[in-house]
Design a protein that fits this description.
Elements (H helix, E strand, L loop, with lengths): L1 H7 L7 H20 L4 H17 L3 H30 L4 E5 L6 E5 L4 E5 L6 E5 L1
Helix pairs in contact: 2-3
Length: 130
Amino acid sequence: MDFLRRFMAGRYGNDQLNAALLVLGLVLIVIEMVTGWGWMGMFILALLILCYFRMFSRNIQARYAENQKFLRWWGPVSTRLHNARMRFADRKTHRYFKCPNCKQRLRVPRGRGKINITCPHCHTQFVRKS
C-alpha cells in the first residue's frame, strides 16, 4: 500500500471527468456485448487508456482545466436531470407550470381546481387548473 501512495504522489488522480469516462466505457462494453460490434473494442480501449493517462499524469494544471471544462458542460445537464427526477417523484401530488412572462417553472399542489398562480419572480398572475 505504501508503494501505491508513493507512486501516486505528485500525480493527478481521479476526478469527475475520469468517472464519467469510465461509466461511458462500461456502457459501451454492455452495448458491444449486446450488439456484437467488435470495432467498438478499440474505442473502449482508447477510452480506458485516456482515463489512465489522466489519472497518472503529473501535469495537474492541465488535467484540472480539462475537468473544469467538463464540469461547466455537465453542470446544467446534471441540474436538468435532477429536476426531471424530482418532478417525476412528486407527479402525483404537484403540477408544474411555466410562467408565461419569464418562463420560470412553478410548482403548485394538485387537486385544487382552477387557481390563480402568481409568479414569485416577475409577479405575473395567470389561471390554471391544478
